[in-house]
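[[Per-residue structure]]
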Amino acid sequence: MHIFGLGLHILIAIYFGVHAIRTHQGLYWLFILFMFPLLGSIVYAAAIWLPDIRNSHTARRAGSTMRRMLDPGRELREARAAYDDTATVANRMRLGQALLADGRAQEALPLLRDAATGLYSDDPDLQAQLARAELEAGDAAAARDRLDALIAAHPRYRSPTAHLTYARAVAACDDRERAHEEFDVLVDSYPGLEARARYASLLAGWGETERAKNLATQSLAKAKQLPRHSRDLDRDWIKQLKELAG
C-alpha cells in the first residue's frame, strides 16, 4: 500500500508537471512538484490548477450549460427580478445578457446599449456582447463595425466568443475572403465544435460542398476524441455536422 501511494503521488505530480509546462508556468514548479510530490501537488493544485480550471472557457461554458439544463429559465427570472427591484447598470447588463443567452436579442439590445455608457462605455466584454446582440438581431454591419472599433481600441483583447461573433458578422456581410481567414483560425482555436459547424454550414451555403463535407467529417472525428461531457455540450453542433457530412 505504501508503494502504491507513493506511485500515485508521483503520477499526480507528473500530471501537474505537464500542466505547468503547457500553461507556461515557472520552471521552479517542476522542482517543487518532484522534490515534494504530495505537498508540492497540493500547493500547485490550490495556487495554479484550480483557478485555471475555474476560469477556463470550457469550464464556464459547462457550468452555464448545466445550470440551463437543470433550470432553463432561472437566470432570466433572477436577472429580471433584480432589474425590476433596482435598475442599476449592473442589473441592466445582467438582464441584457440573460435575454441574449435566451435567444431574445431584440429585447437585449436596448438594455445592453444603455449599459454601455459612462464608465462602461469602453468595457471590451460588454462591447463584444453588444456586437453579438446586434448580429443576432439582424444588423451584421453594426456588429462588425463595433468589433472593428473594439479591436482598434484594445488590440490585446482576446475572447473566443467575440472572435466567433466577428467571423459570423463578416460572413453575414458577404465578405467571404475575410470570413475564410477568420474561420480558418477559429476551427483550431475555438473551444468545442460550434465554430466548425458554423463554418461547414457556411461553406455548404457558398457552394463549397466538398470542403464543407471534409470539414464536417474531420470535426466528427475530433468529436469522438472529446470527453463525454464535451460531446453532450456540443450535441446540437454534432447533429449539424453529421447532416453536412452526408
Remarks:
- The radius of gyration is 22 Å.
- Residues 35 and 203 are 53 Å apart (CA to CA).
- Confidence is low (pLDDT under 50) at residues 1-6.
